Amino acid sequence: MRILITGGSGFIGQLLCKRLREQGHTLLVVSRSPDKTRRLLPPDTDIRARVPEFDGTPVDAIVNLAGEPIAGKRWSEEQKKKLVESRLAITGDLVALCGKLDTPPKVMVSGSAMGYYGAQGQRPVDEDTQPHDEFAHRLCAGWEATAQEAEAYGVRVALLRTGLVLDRHGGALKQMLPPFKMGVGGRIGDGRQYMPWIHRLDMVRIIEFLIEQDGLSGPFNCSAPNPVTNDEFVHTLARHLHRPAMIPMPAAVLKMAVGEMSRLLLTGAAMQPKRLEEAGFTFEYSTLDEALKEILGN
Questions:
Q1: Domains of the chain, CATH where assigned
Q2: Buried b (16+ CB within 10 A) or exposed e, 234-262
């Protein structure tokens, strides 16, 4: 297949591109920095700076992972606007490309996040759970709605409501490891908020699964079937590192430091991958212990 990927140089995208190329697929990647991205991806990857540059190029499938990092900066009104526009603009370009191609892609697998649900407390959350209306929800809902506009061209659209993606060399775990290795890690707030998580390999396998399974569309919770609270997460991580986890981050201090963005860390959702499991997807790493044992080599 000829697969067009946005966000191909990112944490998930690099592993996805590597595996898809090993499977014999042709890679078409959109990157604002083609020269830099070329050093990160398989050597025969076709890399162009903008989606419209692929107009007229046959595309069988699209994977849309691009977007300004949600936790990169404090959520000023300007930053919120950038977060929204970075997702909607490139997704809209992909939808427009689907309308221009003589033969539209068969499928678009498009990013979203656990933030779609907003704060959900302690209850289990599946794809039918009603969201809590807040900025993270509105951001994800707009992103999903834009992607689903491709259905007007006969494109099957699958949406990735992604949890915390874990691996050693990127994502949140890379940032967490230094303080925990020094023994100064600990829970955030009261630690009761859920942290839906997924091993990076399983995240990539889900994308491959959704590309291949013709009957699957709509939202999918991309998180392992055993979500944990923040307190459980930090103590499991500390145990694997043979370090204590005794220095908490008070909620008030976090709110003062990063403002509204603190909700990403102080609220959560006990996401369950109901639709993926009903479709027959099986996880390589279904428990946090299994995932951290592989990642940390213990």
A1: 2-296 (3.40.50.720)
A2: bbbbbebbebebeebbeeeebbeebeebb
